[in-house]
Amino acid sequence: MEKTRENYLAWVRDAHAMEEQAVTMMTGMIGRLENYPTLRERLQQHVAETEQQADALKSILEGHETENSMLKDTIGMAMAKGQALSGLFVSDEIIKGLMASYTFEHMEIAAYRVLIKTAQKLGETEAERVFVKSLAQEQAMADFLADQLEPTTGAFIAREEADLTAKR
Amino acid sequence: MEKTRENYLAWVRDAHAMEEQAVTMMTGMIGRLENYPTLRERLQQHVAETEQQADALKSILEGHETENSMLKDTIGMAMAKGQALSGLFVSDEIIKGLMASYTFEHMEIAAYRVLIKTAQKLGETEAERVFVKSLAQEQAMADFLADQLEPTTGAFIAREEADLTAKR
Question: A60, B2, B57, B167: most buried by Cβ count inside 10 Å?
């Protein structure tokens, strides 16, 4: 299972980069949000969870004593950068931010499901336990964001039509 | 509802760009896939659906006689490009491609849910009907891809360990 172990460690590294980018993206969004307190509060809570997830991934990597290789430029990074940039310009920032967060959560869900399956094949039971916990947190966050799509769109439209700041 | 109508048209344009990028991404993936026939077949079916979705969005735009403005560089484009590029290099292409497709489907789901809510507010009932149909197709594709995550990871690992081409 040498090749699988190699892939596994690469995927754990990718997941770590992804979680760090998630923190960057969410922190940027929280800093700009003004009029959507429910979303802001839940994002703050999830940043704390995400930092713990990133730490857990780092511990797993350190446990395998891999060299500190440069992290790949994942799709997640492109997304996080895109979102960070777009926040500066777009008039529908909250909608784009919500869509990007919802999308990003599903990348994280996919990553943990791949990691769980691989950890099972390798008998990495302790790591599997960590991934299962993180997956549950990502799923809960994805469900929350899913529930926000329609009400936030409605609130955005109502604020716009009332000439209130809608984008943040 | 003038501002809302403006946002609405911008979002329909974004969705059109997103669907075109989805076609690019899936076509690239289909062209490279060799050993995962179930996934390949379902992707081919979804490319046909996606082309119809893009056409439907174009018709809606044309119905509003908007000028042919340059489409925004959405996060979707960055993802599609990232995925198209990554396919040339990565040894775990099928896993990354599956994760990216699953993620992309959720961006599309979010986009259609925002569009449905907005079309309802604007009384655009015919467009709403189109979006509801596309949303159902995206959800079905997302469910299919979700079900593929563990078996494809398992198949990838098995092929790698048997020294068979695993990445495509």
Answer: B57
| Dihedral sign (CA B18, B19, B22, B27) | negative
Any chain B CB within 8 A of the CB of A127?
no
pLDDT in tens, A61-103: 998 865 444 445 455 666 666 655 555 557 788 999 999 999 9
Does residue B164 sit at the A interface (CB-CB below 8 Å)? no
- List the single residue in B82, B100, B118 with the smallest CB-CB distance to A153: B118
Among chain A residues, CA nearest to B120: A154
Residue A36 carries which DSSP code?
A: -
> Which residues 139-158 of chain A have a CB within 8 Å of chain B?
149-150, 153-154, 157
Asked if residue A167 lies in contact with residue A92, where contact means CB atoms within 8 angstroms, the answer is yes
Q: Interior CA angle at B120 toward B116 and B123, to 5°?
A: 135
- Please state, in angstroms and rounded to a whole number, the distance separating the CA atoms of residues B116 and B121: 9
Query: From CA B59, how far away is CA B53, in angstroms rounded?
Result: 10
How confident is the model over B27-41, as pLDDT tens digits? Answer: 999 998 989 999 999
Give the DSSP letter of residue A73.
Answer: -
